[in-house]
């Protein structure tokens, strides 16, 4: 499956348009990097068909998103948001079960099989003990993992994940990134926005560098993650090193 | 097609209407207990009413005046006159009736207050099959007519007609006495906060006229105009008459003493009239009218 | 809250409670009727008086009370989902205010009966359109903007009502006050309310899951395949319809739309497939009980039912909030 964009210009005000031509294939794991406010989240939402672009289009499997039926699109594309709304009480299990929504018809009730899938997702993210807890009582990291559990239950072909490691401790960061990597390896398509360039360097096969003032760069992570590309991206002098054979970038102290 | 269909049906309706009109007229004539109520509807009874529900304090006074007091089985809150009425079962306030209680008392005649009782509730009573007579007197004649109608429906014509005639005679006596009296610009205060009076269509205004007074708010477009104190000062009435919250509560009048420029205040023409005698259109209005006429006469004497 | 059995038990319990309350309400009144007398009256036997009491007065009133409560509670629950705000309620949002203003205008114009109900419905719909239209402004209406607009519009309707009461001829005022206080003593036809409540509950059933998702926010809902705009529009129309019918049946009874859904969420969670039918049952039960109290507690004086719903609702709500699982 291919997720591609054609002359895509994001709907971000006061930005000179740099049309984006992307083609993401199943099995790849993409990281979107860029400074704050450059439009990482907007790009993810546009790729999911939730936000209309200023111009251009997004296609999934060579069919424009606007031609997809909403529900069948939701069976293929899953999104994890950065912010979670909970004005109403809901348990962790109920939240994980949300992922089954696109797979059931309006008159269907969730079956034991659906519940088993949700429980398996929670177990995978080490949330089983919390399954009856109200979401509003969770810590930031636990909520993040609950949202990911919902996505895991949804089991889409395309994973669009906004800042997957937010609020997570190091152990869970690794667990979550490994989960996403495993999904990419089992021929899913994974796109995530990241603010930590080192996570991208460690886990992503491809990166998309979104510059505020020039056209984006995209391609294999090992090609693009260099001081030459990253320093203008963050407008910050960086230093580069190698630990255990892994490339590491750190800001240069002033 | 339509007209062909329409014509016979139209005729049929007409015939049916005629037929029922004749039948009603016939049966009414046979019974002789038919009157027209204040909604201009014909109200008929097969025999004199035995159990009467009076759904406003005013209706209660009228039915007692009609001589059918013993037949009253239901009254509403604040039905305090005559005193016997207080012993009768109450069916709630006139704005919100306890319909079950009304129905369970099995009245054969309901005296309803068209503008005081909820129309939906009265409609329900009619639907159940009770006979409803609407009471809504607007002048002295209406009061007398109501009493006579109630007397006819209750079979107490003797007492009722006498009460009605006595009332009208009393009013006529006042009219005779004051018709050529010098006019007195009069402000009658219906309520205090908000300040209210009444226009010429209201029966209290008719009492003012009866006594040779001139209602200063007679031309007000609304039956019960809401006023501010300024509008009263501009009219500068010679006499101010007011009821009050209770029978001896003359506090409303005291407020006018703050305005020495008012003619009524200068001449001390601030008069209290017991509200129960005037703020209900019942035979007691005659007593209220007598008091009002006396007060206006006092005002004339104070011209010096 | 997930498997059918979790739906069936609460709904079964609520249905039984509702039935018991309805039967109790029919037995209570100014005239005490034993169950035996009641049963006779139901079969068309016993004294004519008892039959009249039961069939002409109590049953229509109890049915009207139940349906009104159900309508209001379901409308409240829908509004809350729509705005993602547990404070939303047809009254807070000015919908019932609009219905009341239109009804009062109709009364002043001398309109009665079905057309009066129609006017109230148009008022409710116009008011909702006004609130949503104004809140929309430029760009998307945020729930907070909607709520604030609703509160302001509701205050505006309040002023219109006061103005109309001040200008109305005195003989029309008793009939007008009814629309403001919420009163079932004037309700004579429960059928319209039932004709709306029952089909709407069926319409809402397949929407339950979409509403669950909508409660998590429009973005999340859209990402899971919900046509958010279409769903929001539908919910909006249904909530207006429910409110309008409730207002035309019994005037403006406050508090039910706010408290019933909230109480149920504290106890049953937030699955709309359960909450919406539960609201219909519990709202109906609350208003039925409240109206029974309103007509018996200081009989023969009758109270407006809105007073009782508030007096019953507030402490129950506070109690649940204290021991609840929020």
Automatic annotation (TrEMBL), chain A:
Keyword match NADP? no
Q: Mind listing the UniProt keywords for this protein, alphabetically? A: ATP-binding, Hydrolase, Nucleotide-binding, Translocase, Transport
The record's annotation in SMART domains points to: AAA
Q: Which InterPro entries match?
A: AAA+_ATPase, ABC_transporter-like_ATP-bd, P-loop_NTPase
Q: What is its EC number?
A: 3.6.3.-
Occurrences of domain ABC transporter (ranges):
1-237
Query: What molecular functions are annotated in GO for this chain?
Result: ATP binding; ATP hydrolysis activity
One short Pfam family name for this protein?
A: ABC_tran
Protein task: Part of the ABC transporter complex HmuTUV involved in hemin import. Responsible for energy coupling to the transport system.
Name listed for the protein in its UniProt record = Hemin import ATP-binding protein HmuV
- Which organism is the protein's source? Marinomonas aquimarina
Q: Which gene encodes it?
A: hmuV_2
UniProtKB/TrEMBL annotation, chain B:
Which Gene3D superfamilies does the record associate with it? Nitrogenase molybdenum iron protein domain
What PROSITE patterns is this protein classified in?
FE_B12_PBP
Q: Would I find Signal among this entry's keywords?
A: yes
Q: Which Pfam families match?
A: Peripla_BP_2
Domain of life of the native organism? Bacteria
Q: Which CDD domains match?
A: BtuF
What are the GO BP annotations of this UniProt entry?
cellular response to iron ion
In this protein, which residues make up the domain named Fe/B12 periplasmic-binding?
51-300
Which keywords annotate this record?
A: Signal
- Is 4Fe-4S one of the keywords UniProt gives this record? no
Record NCBIfam families: TroA_like
The entry's protein name is Vitamin B12-binding protein
In its UniProt entry, the species of origin is given as Marinomonas aquimarina
Q: Which gene encodes it?
A: btuF_2
UniProtKB/TrEMBL annotation, chain C:
Query: Any one Gene Ontology biological process term?
Result: siderophore-iron import into cell
GO MF terms listed in the record are: transmembrane transporter activity
The membrane topology noted for this protein in its Swiss-Prot or TrEMBL record is:
Multi-pass membrane protein
Q: Where in the cell is it found?
A: Cell membrane
Q: Which GO terms describe its cellular component?
A: plasma membrane
Q: Which UniProt keywords apply?
A: Cell membrane, Membrane, Transmembrane, Transmembrane helix, Transport
InterPro entries with a match to the protein in the record: ABC_BtuC-like (IPR037294), ABC_transptr_permease_BtuC (IPR000522)
Superkingdom of source: Bacteria
Regions crossing the membrane: 7-26, 62-83, 90-109, 115-134, 146-168, 188-207, 234-260, 303-321
Q: Report the leader peptide range.
A: none
Q: Which family does it belong to?
A: Belongs to the binding-protein-dependent transport system permease family. FecCD subfamily.
Its name, as the record gives it, is: Hemin transport system permease protein HmuU
Q: What's the name of its gene? A: hmuU_2
């Amino acid at each position: 499956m291919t997720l591609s964009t054609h002359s895509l210009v994001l709907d971000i005000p006061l930005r000179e348009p740099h049309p984006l031509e992307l083609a993401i294939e199943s099995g790849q794991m993409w990281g979107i990097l860029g400074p704050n406010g450059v439009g990482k989240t907007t790009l993810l939402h546009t790729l999911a068909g939730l936000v209309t672009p200023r111009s251009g289009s997004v296609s999934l499997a060579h069919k424009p998103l606007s031609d997809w039926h909403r529900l069948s699109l939701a069976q293929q594309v899953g999104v994890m948001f950065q912010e979670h709304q909970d004005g109403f009480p809901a348990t962790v299990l109920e939240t994980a079960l949300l992922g089954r929504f696109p797979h059931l018809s309006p008159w269907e009730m969730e079956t034991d099989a659906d519940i088993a899938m949700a429980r398996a997702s929670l177990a995978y993210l080490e949330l089983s003990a919390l399954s009856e807890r109200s979401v509003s009582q969770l810590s930031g990291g636990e909520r993040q993992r609950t949202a990911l559990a919902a996505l895991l239950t949804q089991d889409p072909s395309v994973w669009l994940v906004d800042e997957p490691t937010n609020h997570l401790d190091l152990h869970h960061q690794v667990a979550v990134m490994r989960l996403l990597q495993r999904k990419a390896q089992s021929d899913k398509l994974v796109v995530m926005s990241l603010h930590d360039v080192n996570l991208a360097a460690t886990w992503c096969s491809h990166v998309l560098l979104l510059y505020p003032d020039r056209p984006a760069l995209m391609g294999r992570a090992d090609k693009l993650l260099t001081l030459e590309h990253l320093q203008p991206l963050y407008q910050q002098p960086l230093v580069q090193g190698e630990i255990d054979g892994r490339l590491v970038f750190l800001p240069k102290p002033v | 097609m339509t007209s062909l269909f329409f014509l016979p049906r139209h005729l049929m309706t007409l015939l049916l209407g005629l037929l029922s009109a004749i039948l009603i007229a016939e049966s009414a004539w046979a019974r002789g207990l038919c009157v027209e109520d204040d909604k201009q509807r014909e109200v008929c009874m097969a025999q004199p009413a035995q159990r009467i529900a009076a759904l406003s304090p005013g209706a209660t006074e009228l039915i007692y005046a009609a001589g059918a007091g013993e037949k009253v089985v239901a009254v509403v809150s604040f039905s305090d006159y005559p005193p016997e009425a207080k012993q009768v079962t109450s069916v709630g306030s006139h704005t919100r009736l306890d319909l079950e209680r009304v129905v369970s008392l099995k009245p054969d005649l309901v005296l309803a207050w068209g503008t005081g009782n909820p129309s939906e509730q009265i409609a329900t009573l009619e639907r159940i099959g009770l006979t409803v007579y609407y009471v809504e007197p607007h002048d002295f004649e209406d009061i007398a007519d109501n009493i006579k109608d109630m007397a006819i429906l209750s079979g107490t014509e003797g007492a009722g007609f006498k009460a009605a005639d006595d009332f009208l005679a009393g009013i006529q006596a006042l009219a005779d006495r004051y018709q050529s009296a010098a006019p007195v610009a009069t402000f009658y205060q219906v309520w205090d906060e908000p300040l209210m009076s009444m226009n010429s269509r209201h029966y209290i205004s008719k009492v003012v006229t009866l006594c040779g007074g001139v209602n200063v708010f007679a031309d007000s477009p609304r039956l019960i105009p809401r006023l501010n104190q300024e509008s009263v000062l501009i009219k500068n009435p010679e006499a101010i008459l007011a009821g009050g919250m209770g029978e001896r509560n003359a506090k409303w009048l005291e407020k006018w003493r703050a305005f020495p420029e008012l003619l009524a205040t200068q001449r001390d023409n601030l008069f209290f009239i017991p509200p129960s005698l005037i703020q209900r259109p019942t035979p007691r209005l005659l007593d209220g009218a007598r008091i009002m006429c006396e007060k206006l006469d006092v005002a004339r004497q104070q011209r010096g | 809250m997930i498997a059918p059995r979790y739906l069936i038990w609460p709904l079964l319990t609520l249905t039984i409670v509702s039935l018991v309350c309805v039967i109790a309400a029919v037995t209570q009144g100014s005239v005490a009727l034993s169950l035996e007398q009641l049963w006779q009256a139901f079969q068309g036997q016993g004294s004519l008086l008892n039959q009249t009491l039961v069939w002409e007065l109590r049953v229509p009133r109890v049915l009207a009370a139940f349906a009104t409560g159900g309508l209001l509670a379901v409308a409240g629950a829908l509004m809350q989902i729509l705005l993602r705000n547990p404070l939303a309620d047809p009254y807070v949002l000015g919908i019932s205010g609009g219905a009341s203003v239109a009804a009062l205008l109709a009364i002043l114009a001398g309109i009665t009966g079905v057309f009066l109900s129609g006017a109230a419905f148009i008022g409710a719909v116009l008011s909702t359109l006004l609130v949503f239209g104004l809140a929309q402004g430029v760009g998307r209406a945020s729930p907070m903007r909607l709520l604030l607009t609703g509160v302001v519009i509701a205050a505006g309707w309040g002023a219109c009502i006061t103005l109309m009461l001040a200008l109305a001829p005195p003989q029309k005022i008793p009939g007008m006050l009814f629309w403001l206080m919420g009163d079932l003593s004037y309700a004579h036809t429960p059928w319209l309310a039932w004709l709306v409540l029952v089909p709407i509950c069926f319409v809402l059933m397949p929407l339950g899951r979409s509403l669950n998702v909508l409660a998590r926010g429009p973005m999340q809902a859209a990402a899971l395949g919900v046509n958010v705009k279409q769903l929001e529009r539908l919910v909006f129309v249904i909530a207006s319809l429910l409110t309008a019918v409730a207002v035309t049946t019994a005037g403006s009874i406050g508090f039910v739309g706010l408290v019933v859904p909230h109480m149920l969420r504290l106890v049953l969670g937030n699955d709309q497939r359960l909450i919406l039918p539960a609201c219909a049952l519990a709202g109906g039960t609350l208003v039925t009980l409240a109206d029974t109290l309103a007509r018996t507690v200081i009989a023969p004086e009758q109270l407006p039912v809105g007073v009782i719903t508030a007096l019953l609702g507030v402490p129950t709500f506070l109690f649940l909030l204290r021991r609840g699982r929020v």
